[in-house]
Fold this sequence. Notes:
With 226 residues, the chain is mainly alpha-helical. The chain contains 8 helices and 2 strands; from the N terminus they run αββααααααα. Strands 1-2 form a two-stranded antiparallel ribbon. Helix 2 (45-58) crosses helix 7 (171-191) and helix 6 runs antiparallel to helix 7 (171-191). The chain is globular and about 60 Å long.
Amino acid sequence: MQKTVTVPFMLLGVLFNVCLITSNLLETKVIQVGGITATAGLIVFPVSYIINDCIAEVWGFKKARLVIWSGFAMNFLVVAFAQLAIMLPAASFWTGEAGFNFVFGMAPRIVVASLCAFLVGSFLNAYIMSRMKIASRGRHFSLRAIVSTIAGESADSILFFPIAFGGIIPVRELLVMIFTQALLKSFYEVLVLPLTIRVVRLIKKVEGTDVYDTDISYNVLKVKDV
Length: 226
């Protein structure tokens, strides 16, 4: 296993972080399309699972673990800097404070829900991809990508909505939101699966690697083990 990172891996890692940060910012807008209500983050967040699938498939669980923790750290950093910016006094002539605070002033409960759901969902996605690859001897990538995404997205929604909105939104509505978000995000994965397959094949060809996670530790805290 390489101890260094290559340009394709670095670019996917950067894109992974950008998608996560962007999706969190877009969560502040609620959209409605064809009678379906969701947050605007839905258009970006599933991309992080697609990238997660690519990294786990090409470089293995260890590299996926590294990228997941980097995404967590960068999201935490953005939230911390945003809170600092909110606490600083605004200029007397500036009229955009209310809008700025609305976008960046996420309630602590929302932040905790988002970060916890992200970690659990992302690691579950990478773990299932890794284990299924070994079991299938590298075959059936499409099935592995879909199953891992459904599991990861479902876990993400099941954790996020009760932590973020439990006691505020009726249980029935929470269940509808959980099911709708998980379904839409998983459908997103299926929709772009042909592109994901092509990207994975190209990266494997360029990198000349196709990692199987035999004899590794799935301990999510072993970040240094790359």
